[in-house]
From TrEMBL, chain A:
Sequence intervals crossing the membrane: none
Intracellular or extracellular location(s): Cell envelope
Protein name per UniProt: Sugar ABC transporter substrate-binding protein
Major localisation: other
Species whose genome carries this gene: Sinorhizobium mexicanum
Lineage: Bacteria, Pseudomonadati, Pseudomonadota, Alphaproteobacteria, Hyphomicrobiales
GO CC, alphabetical: cell envelope
TrEMBL record, chain B:
Keyword Calcium: no
Membrane topology according to the record: Multi-pass membrane protein
Source organism superkingdom: Bacteria
Compartment(s) where it occurs, according to its Swiss-Prot or TrEMBL record: Cell membrane
Keyword Cell membrane: yes
Entries under InterPro entries matching the protein: ABC_transp_permease
Organism encoding this protein: Sinorhizobium mexicanum
One Gene Ontology term of the molecular function aspect: transmembrane transporter activity
Database matches in Pfam families: BPD_transp_2 (PF02653)
Transmembrane segments: none
Record's protein name: ABC transporter permease
UniProt keyword terms in alphabetical order: Cell inner membrane, Cell membrane, Membrane, Plasmid, Transmembrane, Transmembrane helix, Transport
Amino acid sequence: MLKFTRRAAIGGVMSVAVFAATQGCLTAQAHADGVHDVLNGLIASYSEHAKEGMSNKSVGELFEKDGFRDYLDAYPVGGLADGFVWKPGMGATFTGPYSKLEIKAPFTDYIPLPEGPVLDPKKTYKIGFVFHGFNHPWLISLADAAAWEAARHPNVEIEVIDAEFDDNKMGQVIDTWVAKKYDGIVLWPSREAPMGPPVDRAIDAGIPVVSVDRRTSSEKISSEVLGNFYANGLQEGLYLKEVLKAGNIVLNRKDLGSTADSIRTGAFLEVIGNVDGFNIQGNYHTNSQRTLAFQSTADALQAFNDISVSFNTGGEEAMGALDAIREAKRLNSAPDGKKIVILANDDAKEVLKEIADGNIDMVSPYTPLIGDIGIRAVIKHIGAKEGLNDAPPKLIMTPNLPMITKTKMVIEGVETMTPDEWPYAYGPAVN
Amino acid sequence: MTIIEEKSSINAAGGWAQMRFLPEIGDLSRIVVLGVLVVAGQILYPGFLSPENLRVVLTAVAGIGILAFGMTMVVITGEIDLSVAGVAVLSIVIGGLLLPTGSPALIIGATLLCGLCLGIVNGIFVAKLGVSSLISTLAMLGIASALANIFSAGQATYPEKIAEYMWFGRGALLGVPVPIFLLAVMALACVFMTRSSTFGRKLYATGGNARAALLSGIRIDRVKIVVFAFCGLCAAITGLIESARLGYINPAAFPGLELKVLAVTVLGGAALAGGTGSVFGTLVATLIIGVVNNLLNQMGVSFYMQQVVTALVILVVVVPGMRNRRFVK
């Protein structure tokens, strides 16, 4: 029996939908109409089952040891603002101001703001956008989307600063904008705790602040645009459960304690926690570094002859693992000569190419193209402050996206998409 | 000059007539440590000494080993090169920018030339302008890393269609993976250079006592420029190998590489004060790091604990040597 006591945001209607979905009663079209809700329903369902206990000892022990429950319970899961329903194909196409790449951003219709002057057309609004990493395709795409949105409004000026993974620098940048009386601030914090005080100072100074993707420790923050980490890990588990009933798994995880690791890996373990055939054979933190993922996978392949699954919390990890498996000529070295199943997150173009080529089996998209949502949210907060519109919600969930597989599948009510159907991939194209 | 430094100078003075490729006494302790690790590895994992696992270990450390040879030479002269990560990444990015030309000679040549030139610039700042190598190479690290991002717009490139480029990471020569082959060739060349050539004598003399070396007629500025240039070239080769292995030229690659290389160099017996160190020791240290990492990964030890264990291994090997050296002085 399905229970939905954990998340108030998921109501009775969703319960019916999920139940129907798990029974295979919904059509693929129905899933495409509301993949966000279907996935949220599955999250609630698997979470409840995991809470009742995990029959798989290997999975349960790791889940317990790394304290995934604490992280998962604290991570918000809920509906989209204003009843928005995301559908494949939505979104605007533009050239990234920084990457100079052609981009199709999926969520430009979410919390929409028409092109042209915003709020008081006679005023110019200054918005600061601070993040880390003009040296990473994911982060450049985040900045691309933010700068694109600002450029759509002639009376909005945006200043984009790279804090270079220095929390102190990010804090100083925010303090500077407070001193200069900027109208709004959007940030992509690297870690939660250090950014709480600067955000609080900005809020106390009357400046709306919106964080995107990652969270801060500030309780005063105007809005948080949250990613879909939970749906990522969940779908990796769903896919694995669909294609395998048993096997040894090697985990390539991100930094211990990071949101991306704790939620994605935790959600994955929740899904497979009651499938007795799986065994966690290796567990590595390769910290988003392809080289480390490569090396740990290369060494794991030497230690174990019967690896069936490579679970990766990110695209970098998946590519490193794949390269190591290829170098060792072990792509088809799972028991009975089967292919090692490679699971990934992050819909970079290079990952999608490997899916199309049949090397990586699935990817759960985690789009960086959400910077635009942050800019629109902060503009609406400025408008609310000036009495021109309502404020957006404090928690702005980004739509859950369906997984991408080489061929179309329907897995527990989730219709997958193929690389050809996915125009939102980020980063440079592979030759 | 300390007794050890004198010994090093005497060793290096052997010249062509005395080809001395045998390890020094100090290196033997490292060989023992390596031997113990290998035996322990074979006991814990019967397949540890399998050709396949040895290939994995050696391929994994080939890049860092080659770079450590360059760093060892710099450290022997009493200097330090903190720019290696920046030089490596800028070199491969320059090569990556030329990928559309489709010319392997141009791409690989530009990559290597970039490393060489940046090394020469480092050398000129240190040897001719008298800037501390700590300061000048730190500045070069920042400049090169930033330029790599500016030139590439932070975007990766993929050299997979350039077979000659990929050969450096995935190719084989007489059945030996190219990274291992390059490690061996560079090791032999560097051992010869430091221990059996006139240049080696000048190298140790410069690091042991620069003033004495100068008064002896050694152009220490030239020696330093050469070693920095060589280190830059090694950085470019390392960048080439690693990017070819992954088929991926990443402008954010090699974070913290300079410290890893420095750790290997010190583990190999080089003293940051200069005048001491051997390429053979560095090679053994490289293998120790490779074996430790491979064993820990096979044991499923976490990345964080691996850093602790690796640091402890360095301390266990290096500290007794430091104590002996102090005693000799």
